[in-house]
Amino acid sequence: MIQANCCEVTDRAFSENAARAEIRNYRRHGPARHTCELLRAVRSFGLADATLLDIGGGVGTIHHELLQDVARTALHVDASSAYLKEAKTEATRRGHANRVTFVHADFTKVAAELPQADIVTLDRVVCCYPDFRTLLEAAASKSRRLLALSYPRETWYMRLALGVVNAFQRLRRDPFRTFVHPVAEMRDTMVRMDLHPVTIRRLLVWEVAIYARS
Question: Which domains does the chain have, with CATH numbers?
Answer without folding.
Answer: 6-151+182-213 (3.40.50.150)
